[in-house]
Write a structure and sequence with these properties.
homodimer, alpha/beta, 434 Repressor (Amino-terminal Domain), Rossmann fold, 3 domains, 6-stranded parallel sheet, elongated, DNA-binding
DNA sequence: GATGCATATGAGAACGATTCCATAGCCACT
DNA sequence: AGTGGCTATGGAATCGTTCTCATATGCATC
């Protein structure tokens, strides 16, 4: 059932049916005739043919490192809701934390005009990324990372952790840090720098052994906390780059016989739902993940409508939540 | 840059270029000529034209109630990974728990051959669903619900909760239940029935006041627990239909001065990452969400390849995890 | 009564691929 | 010499739209 068939049955030309479907001069008489036939047959225009003809897919590719994460899923939620408002749909590409897949998906999505735009919820940026991104033929927005020279929406990771650390240090003197690998600029570099600068401000030198790496999971946070206690037994504050890792740290403290927050304070980042639930409730920073997703979608839609405008960057606000894991 | 341009520059016909790209007789000489031109120009065939011509989009629509949930995101993860293996991509439709959007998205995805298949990660099923689904022109799989007459992958909700309840009742006599609305057959009806049957088996009558409703969140679990204690002060076990709600129940117990598990046992369903982390560790049932997603994708791919085969249903296995929230 | 404008319609050319068909050379059998 | 099977190639049809053009009618305007 295609437009030709409809035209034939309604006794008009295919052009008239097309005009009826879109907007154009069609007499009332033919209008009703066509309308009846379409009703009867349940005809729907082929979106593939429309895409070919119009050069628009109304699809946006969204590349994510992993879906099974509070922050990512909330950002995707924001993106999909805003895009849906404007009749766009999301093509989801999950890299499963595989950096090379990120590049591969950028290529695939860029190929053959599959999508009208791309949102990259990235973690790592290197020359390979830069190279592929330069070749993109569709509007492009980076979400959750600050990537110079490209449109992006990012969190104020540095100030968020600096403020939180300052708060923690008002009642402590021996801080430690659990972070992530530095290839992730936002979480790995900026948050750590916020911690270090807050320490420096009050004249505290942080030993290298007090700076441990973990990998986003609570298990890895658990083991990082173990290492910290091993090297810095009198630690009184552990600042963690994510809530999940903080959960692991709290768990280890408890097993080790340290009380939180009396003996050791613990903080996270992200204000995940669980941060309110656990005992003690985790002090953390609220980051507007869903709103970031919405903003990214808005920015992309704007680029699609006005391709010649210069891309801008937006740093999102944050809010420090003091809860029971701080004295 | 299209296939005609490539053909012209390589001095061959467009048919030969197409044969080069796909598979067909092309002499070694022209092969290298075409290859060089494609390399130079960075040409990639238009997927829109291919879709129109071949009648295949290599896209699968996945409709979900909400993305920001452990179980859903893990199932989506499974689906995307398996589909990616076979060169398919996912068109994500998030209904944000809005039942009418579920119908709307089924319609949209069915229209104009946008996708090669649909996976519905549904919650509710009514006549409206049945009607739209009957009209679907593409292969279709229901995930996480048992929907008679359609291909589906579902959890063994009934036996999972029955087994867990039996375990809990080996050391208790006064059980209560926190469930969800019955429109959700899997979580609302089957899990509750598993609980009730386990109680009946050991001759325990459950009072209506001991059966409370909540809405998947820990907050709602908290308030449901409050109501239970109000009506059944000597309750010694609270079986919850989800982990999240169990977290809320534990939180209320703690604030109320009840010890878990000494005074009141609490169980959940889902084995969410946090269920291991909280104190006491939550006894729960592991459900293979990611594997379910993979199976659903496999089933859909099979239907796409063999449209005439009869759809089947698969009930997934489960595993009861006894942790510290049970005596 | 010539001109201009709004309304109305259909023919046909795109959009960019794939594939059927015809043709043709070459080699190997009978 | 005739037949059949590979390899190789280009022409043309096809997928289902949209949109430009050309054409036509009715009506108001100068």
């Amino acid at each position: 059932m295609n437009i030709n068939e409809i035209a034939k049955r309604a006794g008009v030309s295919r052009a008239t049916v097309s005009r009826y479907l879109n907007d154009g001069y069609v007499s009332q008489e033919k209008r009703t005739r066509i309308s009846r036939i379409i009703e009867e047959t349940g005809y729907v225009p082929s979106s593939q043919a429309q895409q070919l003809r119009n050069g628009k897919t109304h699809l946006v590719g969204v590349i994510i490192p992993k879906i099974n994460s509070q922050s990512v899923s909330r950002m995707v939620e924001g993106v999909t809701s805003k895009l849906a408002e404007h009749g766009y749909q999301v093509l989801l590409a999950n890299t499963e934390n595989d950096e090379s897949k990120e590049i591969e998906y950028l290529r695939i999505l860029n190929q053959g005009d599959r999508v009208d735009g791309i949102i990259l919820l990235g973690t790592v940026f290197n020359e390979a990324h830069e190279k592929v991104i330069r070749r993109l033929r569709v509007p492009f927005v980076v979400l959750d990372q600050h990537f110079e020279g490209h449109a992006c929406i990012y969190q104020d990771d540095y100030h968020a952790v600096r403020d939180l650390t300052q708060l923690a240090l008002s009642t402590a003197r021996k801080p430690a840090y659990i972070g992530v690998f530095e290839e992730d600029r936002a979480v790995g570099v900026m948050r750590r720098q916020g911690f270090l600068d807050a320490c420096a401000q009050v004249g505290i030198d942080v030993l290298p052994e007090a700076m441990q790496f973990a990998s986003f999971t609570s298990d890895s946070g658990y083991f990082a906390a173990e290492k910290i206690l091993e090297h810095v037994p009198d630690v009184d504050t552990i600042v963690c780059a994510t809530d999940e890792m903080a959960f692991g740290a709290i768990m280890y403290m408890r097993e080790y016989g340290k009380r939180v927050p009396e003996d050791v304070q613990v903080t996270g980042v992200g204000d995940s739902p669980m941060s309110r639930i656990i005992i003690p409730a985790l002090s953390t920073v609220h980051l507007p993940f869903k709103t970031s997703g919405i903003k990214a979608a808005e920015m992309l839609l704007r680029q699609i409508s006005f391709p010649n405008e210069n891309p801008v960057s937006i740093c999102m606000p944050y809010e420090v939540y003091q809860r029971n894991s701080l004295r």
